[in-house]
From TrEMBL:
Residue span(s) of domain Circularly permuted ATP-grasp type: 78-453
Region (Disordered): 461-488
Biased composition (Polar residues): 475-488
Name of the protein described by the UniProt record: Circularly permuted ATP-grasp type 2 domain-containing protein
PANTHER family reported in the protein's UniProt record: BLR5612 PROTEIN, SLL1039 PROTEIN
Organism listed in the record: Synechococcus elongatus (strain ATCC 33912 / PCC 7942 / FACHB-805)
Length: 488
């Protein structure tokens, strides 16, 4: 019995209340897994990995030895939560993305939040993601961020916190969707009981979100997914979403500005493009407006976009809201724009650009997690309790040289979830990235992308740093999973 020896430890565990005591919603799953020999569980685990590889669900690691294409390690023991727990999270995420859209509209136009000194002006002007060429832009319907991935974590008490906002080009949704398909194949007898909220409608909702941006006078809008190309780390996702939506997958070289519109080269000549789902960072998308040496973008795109002749999701300039320093002000944005208290709290954060907070950070580097403001993917980060003295001294110098570029956060005792490693279940730390779509309405797919720190004791869940993933099940209140009387 695989779960018999599992110890949740002194952490919030996603499936267990105590050793041998699964949470009510996990009882059916635990009983089912424990009816199977360990060898059978391992066989199903391998089949799941093989299926993901066969589907091409890989990502690229830049500069990796022995080839750059890898599969994200997948764990077949899912994460479970009740719908009654999910709905407050959903409300909090809708509140947060609404405030972020208000902030982006404001910061590139009237800048009232700066005039009212809610956010220091110098923080915005010094943010790498704040793009002056985008000042004055007014995207369709006032929506800047159409696709968002908000990273969430739990602490030892089980309370939820927002760890980061990803509102520029958030990735991972394809792996989230493929994980569900894998689980349906791996445990069909469990899914046959029903009660797990579906996620496979995401591509349809994404297409609806993009079509909502098209100019009103266009009867049959053309939507494309703009990718940097096959060597991009998330190319599988670009191709996957384009195929699921029935949209064209294009690169910058496939597009051109002609007759005042964005046009796509086809075998039948040029065809007008109305909506771009871009997976290229702002700096590379138009060499006339941003990086002049970019070979990935389309010269003149910003001007056509400014004239409202093409829509772009996410809007150019949204990267300012990904800045980890700006993240600390989101609760203030919610109060300022919406007149509400935040439903979801940030992780307690120190701003190194403020002298007193910087002094505290430098004195407590062995207790804190330090992050560079503009980095992602687990790069530019120091986990103080696990770092060497040499690493802490290096970050101390970096902070002193450029305090604006760093924040520090309390080291939370992140929740853990049983994870199959080498034939035994190990409690591994997890986070959660729900995906939010903002179109005519705000839609959030139940659950999200659960990332797992696959190394024992590690807090780093990013795939580029060796992290893995698992499926996330949100269970309806009437689900058999929630009945302690259910029979496996």
């Amino acid at each position: 019995m695989l779960f018999q020896s599992y110890d949740p430890g002194d952490f919030y565990d996603e499936l267990f209340l105590a050793p041998g005591q699964p949470r009510p919603e996990a009882e059916l799953l635990v009983r089912k897994v424990d009816t199977l020999p360990v060898e059978e569980i391992q066989r199903r685990q391998q089949l799941a990995q093989n299926f993901l590889m066969k589907m091409g669900a890989t990502f690229n690691v830049y500069g990796a030895e022995g080839g750059i294409e890898r599969i994200i390690p997948f764990d077949i023991i899912p994460r479970l939560m009740n719908a009654t727990e999910w709905w407050p999270l959903e409300r909090g995420l809708k509140q947060r993305i609404t405030a972020l859209n208000c902030f982006l509209q404001d910061i590139y136009n009237d800048q009232k939040i700066l005039k009212d000194r809610v956010i220091p002006e110098e923080l915005i002007l010094s943010a790498n993601g704040f793009l002056k060429p985008c000042i004055g832009l007014k995207p369709p319907h006032g929506i800047w961020c159409h696709i968002a991935g908000i990273d969430m974590v739990r602490d030892r008490s089980g309370a939820w916190y927002v760890l980061e906002d990803n509102v520029r080009c958030p990735s991972g949704v394809s792996y989230f969707l493929e994980n569900r398909q894998v689980m349906k194949r791996t445990f069909p007898e469990v899914f046959s009981r029903g009660g797990v909220l579906p996620v496979d409608e995401y591509p349809g909702h994404l297409l609806d979100t993009l079509l909502h941006l098209a100019p009103d006078q266009v009867d049959n809008p053309t939507v494309v997914v703009l990718s940097p190309g096959i060597y991009n780390s998330a190319y599988f996702e670009h191709a996957y979403l384009a195929q699921k939506m029935g949209a064209e997958l294009v690169e910058g070289r496939d597009l051109v500005i002609a007759d005042g519109y964005l046009q796509m080269r086809t075998t039948c000549g040029l065809k007008r493009v109305d909506v771009i789902y871009r997976r290229i960072d702002d700096d590379f998308i138009d060499p006339l407006a941003f990086k002049p040496d970019s070979l990935l973008g389309i010269p003149g795109l910003l001007e056509v976009y400014r004239q409202g002749r093409v829509a772009i999701a996410n809007a150019l300039g949204t990267g300012v809201a990904d800045d980890k320093v700006i993240y600390t002000y989101v609760p203030a944005m919610i109060r300022y724009y919406l007149g509400e208290d935040p439903i979801l709290n940030n992780v307690p954060t120190f701003l190194c650009w403020e002298e007193d907070q910087r002094a505290y950070v430098l004195d407590h580097l062995d207790e804190l997690v330090v992050k560079a403001a503009g980095e992602s993917g687990g790069y530019g980060m120091l986990i103080g309790p696990q770092a060497s003295e040499e690493e802490r001294q290096k970050f101390a110098r970096l902070i002193q040289e450029n305090p604006r570029n760093y924040i520090a956060q309390k080291t939370l005792s992140l929740s853990r979830s049983p994870t199959l490693i080498d034939g035994e279940l190990v409690g591994c730390h997890v986070d959660l990235r729900p995906y939010i779509l903002c179109g005519e309405t705000i839609h959030i797919t139940p659950g999200g992308f659960t990332r797992v720190a696959m190394r024992k004791g590690s807090l780093v869940v990013n795939s580029s740093q060796g992290g893995g993933s698992k499926d996330t099940w949100v269970l309806t209140e009437s689900s058999d999973f929630n009945s302690s009387q259910s029979q496996a």
